[in-house]
Amino acid sequence: MAVESLGILGIEGIHYYVRDLDRSRRFYVDCLDFAIIGERGPEQVPGDRQRSLAFRAGDCTVVCSTPVGEGGRAHRFLSKHPDGVGTIAFRVRDAERAFALLEARGGTPISDVEHVEGDEGSLSTFSITTPFGDTTFRFIERRGNMPLFPGMITFDPPRGGSNRFGFVRFDHITSNFQTMSPTLLWLEHVLGFQRFWDVAFHTRDVRAQIRDGSGLRSVVMWDPESGVKFANNEPYRPNFKGSQINVFHEEHRGDGVQHLALEVPDIIETVRALRARGVEFMPTPAAYYDRLPERLAQLGIERIDEPIEALRELGILVDGHGKGSYLLQIFLKDSARLYGNPEAGPFFYEIIQRKGDLGFGEGNFRALFESIEREQTKGAAS
Asked: Would residue 165 count as lying in a domain?
């Protein structure tokens, strides 16, 4: 039975806690060509114990905050975790109504609904705790032209980038858990989301005597009204401890947001331009592209518009369910490996272009993992 909708309109943005705010500025502006749309700090809000910059490209908004002294939200998060996503914000039609529904369903509000009046509009907002580790959810109702946060200095015009890479919106949010069932139940019964898609696999046949390979279980939950999607992963036996999902849990020091997908209209153009800027992506073994024509045939994808050699050159992955639809995706290196510093965290971005397919690249998980293992086996034998 469907649960009454909260009236979510979309993802407002994410709040990312970092140790080095200038490094974040260089990444979003100099590498991804996001614009800086505002800033906030103790000078604007006395007693605020963090300094923040807000970045935007298309409908993708990322607020990065770093501690100023001790005791603030950024300091508390970073005292437990490496850099990571501490808050996901949603636009809602009616904050009071969303609050009442969540509280009645067993949600845990951090505060009552707060109302802020400005010269050009009003803002109503509240936050709740979640099973996503130390990541909270914020719900925001906006009327008129209001800044992201009270006290934020808005830059008009924005400073920095101009979104030359064509980022459109957040396609989905992916989080990792040691056990995801509590989160799925919470998303269903508290937030009112529905099950959209699921998969479980291991890169080797799952037999009791096998102790290598890598696997996961993944379930996507979504809000049908807004289209907001959460992909949720947990490790899959055997080799639970060696699963990339469990490795994330250990590196992040808890459950949390693993990556966000940024939608683009032309992934080849975007990735080629990003690579020219020095942006680093996770490598894709040559074996993946050697088998790609066979995989596409198995998936029922008769043709794709993009030359396979261009995909090989750029490291772009392809997946789909046939019937003329497919998707293309690629993953940036995670922050810890980008900067050679574990405290930068295991979070990363995905870039995705959908050509009619609404799936989540499940075949790419398996194909990429198997390709890596073939490359490793080839290297050991040579």
From this structure: no
Does residue 342 have a cis bond before it (omega within 30 degrees)?
A: no
Domain with 23 in it: what CATH number?
Answer: 3.10.180.10
Do 166 and 265 form a contact (C-beta atoms < 8 A)?
yes
pLDDT of 42-76, one tens digit each? 888 777 899 999 999 999 999 999 999 998 999 99
Which residues are CB-neighbours of 50 under 8 A, at least 6 positions away? 41, 65, 66, 67, 68, 72, 73, 74, 75
Q: Shortest CA distance to 240 belongs to which of 176, 173, 284?
A: 176
Domain interval for residue 307: 170-381
The first and second tokens of residue 151, run together, are 């006290």
Alpha helices by DSSP H, listed for the chain, are: 21-25, 73-78, 95-104, 181-189, 244-252, 267-276, 286-290, 292-299, 308-314, 335-339, 362-381
Amino acid present at 27: F
Mark whether 145 and 218 lie in a shared domain: no
pLDDT score, position 207 = 44
Crossing angle for the helix pair 292-299 and 362-381, to the nearest 10 degrees: 150
Note whether 336 and 211 are same-domain residues: yes
Out of 113, 131, 160, pick the residue that ends a domain.
160
3: in domain: no
Judge if 14 and 141 occupy the same domain: yes
Q: Are both 99 and 205 inside the same structural domain?
A: no
Q: How many residues are given for the chain?
A: 382
Q: Can you tell me whether residue 137 is helix, strand or coil?
A: strand
pLDDT at 362 over 80: no
Domain count, the chain: 2
Chosen domain end from 160, 190, 207: 160
Q: Are 334 and 346 in contact (CB under 8 A)?
A: yes
Tokens of 43: 């000078």
Whether omega before 157 lies within 30 degrees of 0, making that bond cis, reads yes
**Rounded CA gap, 300 and 320, in Å?**
8
User: Tens digit of pLDDT for each residue in 166-206?
Assistant: 999 999 999 999 999 999 999 999 999 999 877 665 555 44
The pLDDT mean for the chain works out to: 89
Share of the chain above pLDDT 70, in %: 90
